[in-house]
Design goal:
Elements (H helix, E strand, L loop, with lengths): L21 E3 L6 E3 H7 L13 H10 L25 H7 L5 H8 L3 E2 L2 E2 L3 H11 L1 H4 L17 H8 L3 H14 L7 H5 L1 H7 L3 H14 L1 H13 L1 H11 L3 H11 L6 H23 L1 H17 L7 H8 L4 H25 L1
Antiparallel strand pairs: 1-2, 3-4
Helix pairs in contact: 4-5, 7-8, 7-17, 10-11, 10-18, 11-15, 11-18, 12-15, 12-18, 16-17
Length: about 350
């Protein structure tokens, strides 16, 4: 019994105690509580008929390196834990570095900051610097030379992503390995055009902006009529634009239209549903759209026949653009006014 004191019953997962009634499988030697064995039989049937019995495998697992975060057994040459993504000791040995000060705090929760959990900015910087994530590109133990689509490597994708590669690379690897397309992104769900522009997907941002502008026109028309139908707002409009008779006439004609009923009411309902579906689709497939965008752009750069620094070009053409994000934020803010102008022109 003493020889099993450091092990657990594979059926109930409870560690063996000195008074436990233990039996072993005659085929592989796996120990069980007698009642567990009676109820479930041997769960290690894969070891039956093999030279490697339970004890040999248990010793092998005990000697295997463990993940510092979740305790998962790792291969000696494994860079990252395949369960939680924590960098292994071997990873740091490959980089010629030691685990930084923030490593155990971040992955094992050994230290709390005054404002909550985690580590300070200096330690976080040491951690990310030591991880050298641009070279390895992911947090699932993938080799930087592994390819995704069209011979684009993991390292190239990480370089193209730039900021927040720790968020994107695990998702890219999962999308590649399992063909996942539905992969939501909260920022894209809330601000689809601005998110796409920030990630330099300008064409996609323009397409979504134009589609939303066209689809939302019926709802904008109804909202405009409601606002101008209020006497206070109408008086403000006359005070501002009363000197333009043609515009006043158009507004008066527009206010006479019955937009809440009939075919226009149906059109408004349909357009509202279409806009909701568009926003939902942009948000729920945003990460896959970004994945495809990265692959396409990197492939285009690599196919350039000229002798240029393609690695530098991948970095420059990738990353993020605050300028584009601000531009589209302004366009979104101005969309209602533009829609009002278009609606009055069509009256």
């Amino acid at each position: 019994m003493i020889e099993y004191k450091d092990y657990s019953c594979p059926v109930c997962n409870k560690q063996f105690g000195e008074e436990d009634d233990i039996v072993v499988c005659p085929e592989c030697g796996t120990p069980y509580h007698r009642e567990c064995y009676k109820a479930a039989g041997c769960v290690n049937t894969a070891l039956h008929g093999q030279q490697q019995g339970w004890r040999a495998r248990a010793v092998e697992e005990q000697e295997a390196p463990k993940c510092a975060s979740c305790g998962n057994a790792l291969r000696p040459d494994q860079l990252f834990c395949d369960k939680c993504g924590t960098p292994s000791t071997y990873y740091y040995e490959c980089n010629g570095t030691k685990q930084p000060a923030g490593y155990r705090a971040l992955y094992m929760g050994e230290k709390k900051s005054p404002g909550g959990s985690g580590i300070n900015e200096k330690e976080m910087g040491e951690l990310y610097s030591a991880m050298n994530i641009t070279d390895f590109g992911d947090s699932f133990g993938s080799d930087p030379k592994d390819t995704l689509e069209d011979d684009v490597t993991v390292a190239e994708a990480a370089e193209f992503i730039g900021p927040n590669k720790l968020y994107y690379m695990p998702k890219f690897l999962l999308m590649h390995r399992f063909g996942i397309r539905f992969y939501p992104n909260l920022a894209a769900l809330l601000f689809p055009e601005i998110y796409l522009a920030y990630r330099k997907m300008t064409v996609q941002a323009i397409v979504v902006f134009i589609l939303r502008f066209i689809i939302s026109l019926p709802a904008m028309a109804l909202s405009l009529q409601t606002v101008l139908g209020n006497q206070d707002y109408y008086n403000m409009f006359i005070a501002a634009y009363g000197s333009i008779p043609a515009l006043v006439e158009k507004v008066q004609a527009f206010l006479k239209l019955e937009l809440e009923t009939g075919s226009f009411g149906v059109l408004n309902t349909v357009s509202s549903i279409m806009e909701t579906l568009l926003i939902f689709s942009a948000g729920c497939f945003a990460n896959r759209i970004y994945y495809d965008h990265c692959i396409k752009r990197i492939s285009e750069i690599k196919s350039i026949p000229l002798q240029v620094d393609k690695e530098d070009m991948i970095i420059r053409r990738g990353g993020t653009s605050v300028g584009l994000a601000v531009l589209f934020a302004v366009l979104v803010f101005m969309r209602a006014g533009a829609a009002a102008a278009v609606i009055l022109m069509l009256v």
